[in-house]
Write a structure and sequence with these properties.
17 helices, 500 residues, mainly alpha, two-stranded antiparallel sheet, 4 strands, 69% helix
Length: 500
Amino acid sequence: MAAVIPETGPPSAAMRRTLGVRDGMAIAASSTAATTSIGIGMGALAVYAGRQTPALLIVAFLPILGIALSYARLNRTEPNCGNGYTWVGRSVGAWPGFLTGWVVLVANVVFMAYTSAITGSVILQFAGKAHLHNLFGIALDPGSTGVSTVVGLAALVTVTVTAVTGVRSATRLQWVLLGFEYTVLLVFCTWALTTGDQPFSWNWLNPFAIGSFHSLAQGLVLAVFVFWGWDAAFTVNEETKNASDASRGGLIALLAMLGLLVFAAIAFQRVMSADELIAQGPQALTFLGAKLSPEPWASLPLAALMCSAFASLQSSVIPTARGTLAMGRDQTLGRLWTRIHPRYGSPAAGTIVIMALSAAVAVLAVGIPKINLMILTAVNSIGLIVALYYGLTALACAVRFRGALREGPLEALRAVVLPALSALVLFGLGIYLAYQYATMSDHFEATPDNGWFMLTIPSLIVLSGLVAAAVAKWRRRSAYFTTGRGTDADTIALPMDATA
């Protein structure tokens, strides 16, 4: 049984520097979850972009690239597992800095909640293929949020255990899962590309052919969500042998994600019409497999989707626990989050608490009866939150390195102009969509097509962050607020857990 050694006891444990570029790539690639994004996201993107989905993905990548360069530049100067929380706090201000850390925490908790339900749904689809449709009188319906959530919570507990026992072993498992899912994804997408009966058109790559600015804006927020996750590599920068390894891992994973997404979007459209793609929704990848091949080969895309969901769950637990570790070091959150397990060198207590919070959110989401509606609700809400914290981090880069404006046009472009433009684009998208949500409905209803509901969720996340910040400033009296600086990663003494 675990016991806590007081801070006045033996020397504090520290996270171990055992990771390299490949590990950062594995964490970033698993967190972006290309197969899951492709499997459940192409239909949602097609709702807004139609046949221009490949173009939408390319356009959305441009501000994300600016954000990624901002992360790399800030990480080179100040590697910290809190990344955006620390960088924004020191460059822009403590309140927006804390809000950055808070919304990342909440967004990941919500993401893990709905991803666990997706994982459960995929497992139930496999059960259906094995002709297991009922268990103890309960219908094993993969479209049911309740049944999928119960099964998915077992998967969430499993990945939490692997995350607690060490990030190194977790990344090894992720490489195995990534290898399988990417192989299946590339084989089936290549098959679709070469045998599809829908004629290819260069107009698919024309963003100006998207129906309206509203469709473009909504589609861009969804696409930003699809790319979301590459920054997970930066949360293990205190566990990499060299801080720059985290930057290289994240950037390589992001570029690979762009290639996979655009390739898959074109491949899907070679096999399915826009109406088919929209109608299939989160089952688009499994529909593709069934359309191209007979069983048992048609089940391979479903197996790849399950591997992607498992890897994504695990890679979300890892960075979230490290973000709260940084906040705990600054005492903006409680000391519970700073406990490092002496054997595994991981923030074990925080990892378990995050799992519990995600499980609680997943249970609350059971009120949304159909899993495709739950996915759409989560994606839209998280998309706005991701745009907010990415924009704040890019703004921090532009503010911190504003002196580069005097160091020549190339340096000014990389350190200030591109980050600032990327931040403005994401802020603009968020403000525009918030206005659209506020004016599109005349009553409140808990559905993904109700503007007030879609605005309520991110608003509550931000409001709760401001309340938590007030507690940290005036009750905890955190130095993060009183001195304007957080705690350096290499100077804090962390309490460790001990096993009896």
